[in-house]
Each structure stands twice: as structure tokens, then as C-alpha cells.
Amino acid sequence: MTIAAVRTHRLSAPLHTPFVTALRRTTTVDTLVVEVIDDEGRSGFGEAPQVWQVTGASVAGAEACVRELIAPALAGRDADDLVARCADVQRVVAGNESAKGAVDVALHDLAARRLGVPLVRLLGGTTRRVPTDVTLAAGDAVDLAAAAKQRRGEGFDVLKLKVGTDARGDLDRVRAVRSAVGPGVRIRLDANQGWTPREAVRIIRGIEDAGLDVELVEQPVARWDLDGLAWVSDRVDLPILADESVSGVRDLVEVIRRRAADMVNVKLAKCGGLHPARTLLDLAAAHGVGTIVGSMMESQIGVGAAASLVAAYGTTAVSDLDAAWWLAWSPVRGGIRYDGATVVLPDAPGLGVTSVTEAKMQTRG
């Protein structure tokens, strides 16, 4: 069976709460959904979220990449030869990992649908329930404490606190959140590159000395500063998680070589899809590097693919899969749902997505 068409859908949907980090503030999810269709009319879906400040990816850029380069390379090719098709996607264009990731996921989704199995089964797993953390958007100590209490009441017991917007007040923010939720909740920090190495060491040592029981610290320094990341890792006891510093295999190899971080956050939109993500997880495991799988601000499509990967491959810590939870309403029908702090995968072929609909959506093919 062959690939008959590759279509793109521009989607924008509001968040119920502004999402604020050291890198950006957003009130919407803006994303490109890619639909790969076989000659029997089946569709597989993937997603390329727009994250200018993290990956540099845009909806317009991803769409141009898919339409002008990737789609022609797939047209008329065997849809069942998944490994070869994913290789085609990686080979046809340099960079553009978000666009390539969307097509890679769509090909996996289509393959699972053609076999009549959920994506997690195609990847080798069986569980349909995957725990997730929830993010506390950057803010002052009072607001963060209130948000932490609310999320705890909603069933979340792993809180990811966004810091890095104001190094002088970050220790007080962590102290306020810990006081608000008590000892039974895991707290992890994400500075999103917001600290200098010296600030990172000072703040993390302060957290350690205060006994605030933080689980890990994500991307404390600039993504390009692997020397700084290694310098921080060598001077603190808390595990350091590399996120923006690692997109692909070569990045992870360098982090491992320099002993720059204890853990890595694997994201499909950073690395180019499920196929390269599995390589990253295997490489990390082989070198004793801890793992989580994360998500950008994206819909049930991207989060569903990431959660399916976690369900099949596992990670060493609870993954970061709350992105679709932030949506005030979703343009995607079907797919995952949230049950408190758990992502529930559908018992349906592929990602279980039935349609994408939205008033501002533009379809091209």
C-alpha cells in the first residue's frame, strides 16, 4: 500500500492559564498537524508545535518543509516500510526537526492504524496509563504557592516549578511552594537556561542546605554552554537534567563525554520523531544517564505520541506530558485524555485521533 497524500493543518487553540517560562509567555498552542494518507483512505497524524524561543520552529516554516521537501519524497512510496520511510524523512532535509518529527509520528500512527493496534503496541508496550508531572508557570512566590496547592488538589504529586526569571528570588519561590504542598509532593525545577553557572550553583546549594527536597534541576544554564552545565553538575548534589542542550544523538554524545548532566529530557519535536527518540533513550540507558520524555506546548497528538513512547520504553523519572492538559478546549477529537496526574492512552488504532477541527484551521494538500 502506498502513500497517496500528505496534508497539513494549521491549528491554534487557547490555554486555560498563561504558560510562562524564563524564555517566553504564551496563551495559545500554535501548531502544525501533518496528516499522511494511504491509498485506502487511512490517515496518520503528527504534530510540529511552534516554539520560536526553544527550537526556532514555526508553523509556516514547518509547513513549507513538509509541503516542499518531505511530501514529494514520500509520495507513492510503500507506507508499510516504516523504517525506510522514516529514513526518507530524516535524509531529505537538514535541521527542521519539528517538521520531521511530525511526519515521523504520522507515519508511525498510520502504520499502527493499518495493523489495527494502538501506537503503544506498535512500539512494543501494553500499558495505557502513564503518569505525568504538571508545570507551575513562572511567577512570584505567592502565586506559585497558590498554584501548587490547586494542582495538588487536582491530584498531581509531581510539580515542575518554572524558575530562572529572577535568580535573586528563586530560592524563596521554591521555599514557598514546598511550604504550600508539604513533604509528600515531588518538586522539580526548570530554569529554561535562565541562570548563569554561578547563579545556578548558588541557588541549588541554597536549596540543598535548606532541605527543600527538590528532585532535579532542568537546564540551569544556556543550551550552548556545555562547559557551564558540566561545571554546575560537578558542584551540586541534585541531579541536573539537560533539555535544550540536547536535540539529537550528537548532542547527547557530547553531554555524556563531558559528564555535563545526569539526565536528559527527550522531546519528539527536538529530535525529529519517535525513531530518533528511541535511539536517544537507548543511548542514555547504555551510559547510565537518567531519562524523561517531555513535550512542547502541543495538542493530544504530540503528547499522545510521547506518552506512547514512555509506555513502551519507560523512563527513569516521571515524564513531562502535561502540555495538552493546558488547553482550554481542543481542536483534536479522540486521542489521549487526562485522569488526574495520569495520561490515559486510547484503546483504539494508532493515536486514536479521529479528526482535527478548528475555526482558524487552514488545510493544504
UniProtKB/TrEMBL annotation:
GO terms for biological process: amino acid catabolic process; peptide metabolic process. InterPro entries: Dipeptide_epimerase, Enolase-like_C_sf, Enolase-like_N, Enolase_C-like, Mandel_Rmase/mucon_lact_enz_CS, Mandelate_racemase_C, Mandelate_racemase_N_dom. Keywords: Isomerase, Magnesium, Metal-binding. It is an enzyme of class 5 (isomerase). CDD domains: L-Ala-DL-Glu_epimerase (cd03319). Substrate binds at residues 24, 135, 160, 295, 297, 320, 322. Its cofactor is Mg(2+). GO terms for molecular function: magnesium ion binding; racemase and epimerase activity, acting on amino acids and derivatives. Binds 1 Mg(2+) ion per subunit. Its EC number is 5.1.1.-. The active site is at residues 162, 267. Belongs to the mandelate racemase/muconate lactonizing enzyme family. This is Dipeptide epimerase. The lineage of its organism: Bacteria, Bacillati, Actinomycetota, Actinomycetes, Micromonosporales.
